[in-house]
Amino acid sequence: MITKYRIRVSPRNRPTPRITKVDVEKETPLYVWIDGKRCQKESGYLKYYDSWEEAKVVLMEQAKIRLDDIAGQYERTELCFNLIQALKNEGV
């Protein structure tokens, strides 16, 4: 058996910071076999890594991307708010 670490890639608004240890029966560059079933190493929702540390780094990178997106949204919303606040009633 080969030990791998699986993370679930979650939608942007639902982080699932979980690393699951799995026993792999067989491995190729693109697939792993778990309980006799072939699984892609990188699918839309699951990814498999050789070490727990590597999986954690990927989860942290995903969280950083989310934080940067939210910070950008906040800045744009704050700018819009300030522009609205500065509007003057000119008898429109």
> How many domains, in number, for the residues?
1
Question: End-to-end distance, in Å?
Answer: 74 Å
Note the run of SSEs as H and E. Answer: EEEEEEH
Strand order of the largest sheet: 2-1-6
Q: Outline, from the CA principal axes?
A: rod-shaped
Contiguous runs where pLDDT drops below 50 for at least 5 residues = none
Q: Layout of SSEs?
A:
Elements: E1 2-8, E2 19-24, E3 26-27, E4 31-34, E5 37-40, E6 46-49, H1 52-85
Antiparallel strand pairs: 1-2, 1-6, 3-4, 4-5
In short:
This protein is of the alpha+beta class and 92 residues long. It is built from one helix and six strands, in the order ββββββα. A hairpin with a 2-residue loop joins strand 4 (31-34) and strand 5.
Structure write-up:
It is a single chain. The chain is α+β, with helices and mostly antiparallel strands. The protein has one domain. Helix content is 37%, strand content 29%. It contains one helix and six strands, in the order ββββββα. It has a three-stranded antiparallel β-sheet with strand order 2-1-6. A three-stranded antiparallel β-sheet has the order 3-4-5, with no helix packed on it. The chain is rod-shaped. 5% of the residues are buried. The model has no long low-confidence stretch (mean pLDDT 90).
